[in-house]
Specification:
The chain is an all-alpha fold and about 375 residues long. Helix content is about 80%, strand content about 0%.
Length: about 375
């Protein structure tokens, strides 16, 4: 029950994070500057990310490290209130993401360790994160629309304080994690199926992470308000719940190559609709595809990485996956900011659609030709 409560509260904080870039825009930063801030911050966080996983696996300190990362996110989020210059925001965003981005895979590793052989039930715990996100995101949008964007940092501080109170109550892992040698860790990086999947993840998640940065700005630039952004994100989070809940059944009945192909095609359609029809109705309706894009992709990917890496490198594997997502986010943040500023948001989303279509098709063909790929639920 405590894992469900943790996800519920922690992902409330993620709903607040969605509006950070609107705050940056409100203090006069350009789309290119916002992209640069996110790129620099995520690049530094990315360099640190694998170290969190290695420390967790080798010293069995996963819960302690989770406490440290959430506390760091709490302190750094409040530091945003101390200044508004480009370089100050860049510095604080770097500190904030270094802690926050590490907390997600550490929490996933803690849950997967607790579930043990029942790891396919991950989605039924992760759904509570979606419920928490959905419960507040529209309200957060309405709140900052009626007050001031800077108030989001007070909200995030409250969420992280509550999260810190829950972490000590999280159950310990039921499985004993064997600590592997450095040589065996290096062998993880030579798994062809892992590297192929990481490359596929890079391109697919590039489109999603960049959307997370620029979608609120895209809506505002086309006449929408913060409350509309909140409603759109509520629809997105609600739509993914069914996928999380039935994820175990999905993975038992369908092979990975078909799951990822469907997810990729849904990504392509979602971005195409946003590119061609930047109107409120499409801003809202397109969010229904979040279930087949992020929801379907993420829950399957977490289980697949867990199966490839095994108990020995559970946290390390999740951090490698998070690292791939981090690299794609860095590239997307920087290049996306330039494209958005120079060519517009519609062009950016059209490029996203083509990238998702191409990546999904190529990965589907690649794994069909590789007989050594292992499948979840096949």
């Amino acid at each position: 029950m405590y894992f469900k409560t943790f996800n519920f509260i922690f992902y409330m904080g993620m709903s607040v994070l969605t509006f950070f870039n609107l705050y940056f825009k409100s203090v006069g930063l350009t789309s290119s500057q916002i992209g640069t801030i996110n790129s620099i911050a995520k690049a530094v966080a990315l360099l640190c990310l694998p170290l969190w996983g290695i420390l967790s696996d080798y010293y069995k300190a996963n819960k302690k490290l989770l406490m440290i990362t959430v506390f760091g996110a709490l302190v750094s989020s409040l530091m945003f209130l101390a200044g508004q210059s480009f370089w100050f925001i860049t510095l604080i965003m770097t500190l904030f993401l270094t802690f926050l981005l590490a907390a997600v895979p550490l929490a996933d590793a803690q849950l997967l360790g607790y579930l043990g052989e029942d790891s396919k039930q991950y989605g039924k715990y992760r759904i509570w994160g979606s419920i928490g996100y959905t419960a507040v995101v529209a309200g957060v949008g309405y709140f900052i629309e009626k007050t001031a964007p800077g108030n989001i940092f007070y909200l995030s501080g409250i969420v992280y304080i509550v999260t810190l109170l829950i972490i000590p109550k999280l159950p310990e892992q039921d499985v004993s994690i064997e600590v592997g040698s450095l040589k065996k860790f290096k062998s993880l990086l030579h798994k062809k199926n892992l590297l192929t999947f990481i490359l596929f993840t890079f391109f697919i998640i590039l489109t999603l992470k960049t959307n997370n940065i620029y979608f609120p700005i895209y809506v505002i630039d086309h006449g929408g308000k913060e409350f509309l952004v909140g409603i759109a994100l509520t629809i997105a989070a609600t739509s993914e719940m069914a996928v999380f809940y039935f994820s175990e059944e999905i993975m038992e009945h369908f092979r990975l190559k078909y799951i990822f192909l469907v997810s990729s095609l849904a990504f392509a359609l979602r971005w195409f609709l946003l590119a061609q029809f930047p109107i409120p109705a499409v801003f809202l309706a397109s969010q229904l595809l979040h279930s087949l894009t992020f929801g379907l992709f993420h829950v399957t990917a977490v289980n697949y990485i867990n199966e490839i890496c095994g108990d020995r490198f559970k946290a390390t594997g999740q951090n490698l996956y998070a690292t791939a997502k981090g690299i794609s986010s860095i590239v997307g943040s920087f290049i996306g900011g330039i494209i958005y500023q120079e060519l517009g948001g519609s062009t950016l989303y059209l490029y996203f659609s083509l990238i998702a279509l191409g990546a999904g098709t190529i990965y589907f063909i690649a794994i069909r030709k590789n007989d050594n790929i292992s499948y979840v639920g096949s």
